[in-house]
Amino acid sequence: MRPIQQQLDLFSDLSAFEGTDVEYKAAKGGLPGDLWSTYSAFANTEGGTIYLGITQRGHALDVHGVDDAEKLIGDFWNTVNNRSKVNCNLLGNHDVEQLAIEGTSRKVIAIHVPRASRHQRPVFIGSDPRTGTYRRNYEGDYRCSDSEVRRMFADQSEEPADSRIMEGFSLDDLHMDSLRQYRNRFQSRASSHPWLAKDAPGLLEQLGGWRLDRARKLEGLTLAGLLMFGKSSAIQAVEAVPGFHLDYRERLSDDPRVRWSDRLTIDGTWEANLFQFYQQVMAKFAADPGLKRPFAQDAEGVRPMGTPVHEALQEALVNALIHADYSGQGGIVIDRFADRFEFSNPGTLLVSLEQILRGGVSECRNKSLQVMFQMLGVGDKAGSGIDKIRDSWKSLHWQSPRLEETQRPDRVVLALPLVSMLPEAVLAALSDRFGARFRALGKDSVQTLVTAQMEGSVSNHRLQEILTLHRRDITTLLQSLVKDGFLVPDGFGRGTSYELGDGERPSGLAAAPPDKATIPPDKATIPPDKAASPPDSAASPADKAAVPLDPELVAIAAPVRSSKRADRAVTRATILKLCQGRFVSLRQLSELLGRGAETLRDGFISPMVKTGELELRYPDKPSRRDQAYQTQKGVDA
Q: Is the pTM of this model over 0.85?
């Protein structure tokens, strides 16, 4: 990679704070001690990039670089390959880069940490995984609990979780009507299948519900057999799955006093095993009045094939059942809202979200359960389940499904919106808001703005689920929409999202020519958007209309602007006068007073907000980059 290209790529990365996959560390005195907890956290979550030679200061980045990059890189490789320091080196030579800073001899070091496979997790520091295993969330790196570490070790095993023989359990713990109903469903799909000639124990053995462990000379019912066909009391026994929980909830009532309009949960009125739950939930999907063209039911109450919507719902339900970690918390929960379905199951993804969205990769936690559902024609083994769901939703022009992991407790949530991807009313509203400039945008930009309008905001992570663009291309798209005034960044650091702007290009946001968009020299401060403007530079049209730089305002600011060291009391009084009766952004105050934005914010604006002298335009979102300030009523200016 040529130096200029390295600089451009780093400039882009430094501008992108979407998600949890970027960390900046100073490294002025050598490798920082907390580098390794971040390495562990990235590896055990979704991967990420660590930059050495950059410090985050408030709402900006100080790119100072490191003096001896070669020595630091050598120290890094020595340590990452030291098993007493880190148990697993995930990196190749291409994962560590030196990035030049224009005009200096110093470099920034970029360390790209991939997500560890399930066979490699947990990645930990030191000699004890119980104290050295970390994960990542929007608050940073956190040390994993003992239970989280145990589940990572359990996921390493080649032996599926549901193949465990349940000692002390027998065929008497099964709900035999469930097994008979399953056989009928299986037979209606594949009437000549040889497994159907076997008796109940024989069929169970072929399905993985009964197993012989030759090494231990032990034979018996497996966890899969118990979960799929067991009696509720047996499944929930202390020796089995005491936290087992199944819940289907409809939230369709307009009456706020009605919590559920319909609910199916473990209440003693039915044998709550996975097969019965699957049948009853599928019957509810079939009868759902909000879904068009419901398909006909067969003699068992449900048919596995039908419209694209029902096939997608069926796939989502089975995915939740076969991928769940039944030792986790919360059980299987399906919520039917007026505008979406949500499928939630305990556990983590065994492959990265990026691999799942690409398709073709299959890692199943409960392989016997997967076989059982495959014999009914669902639960595809080729890793195409999410593809089927996305294709079905796309064919109906509905908003793209959203798949995400949550932590503490670990859960996987799949949301299926029942909302048009490009509703006419939303397109019309955006066209009215932005005019001809909106109508000239490309399809990806239009979809981004539609999503921001309908969901309240949009993020890089969300767009990865909707668009067919790479994360870096989405970053460029978002920054372009910010530069042109269509979007306004909300927040700073991890979890930055974007809300709709007012459509006018913010002042001072002209992009640099491509051949000049390089890393600024030593001590340069890079703000969190690619436009390289100071915080609060994205002033809205309302700001500009309220505070034109006319002679009257320039005159008010003159006592401070004309003095290099104005008295603090004079500066404070001038700010109150400028903000009286109008909202003024930090950038505008900086221009009027001739002072740096950070100096004003840290020395005056923030303290004056705390004392109640100034009020925020957006009090519920104080970190908005287009935040503005007004003198509180009753405060003397």
A: no
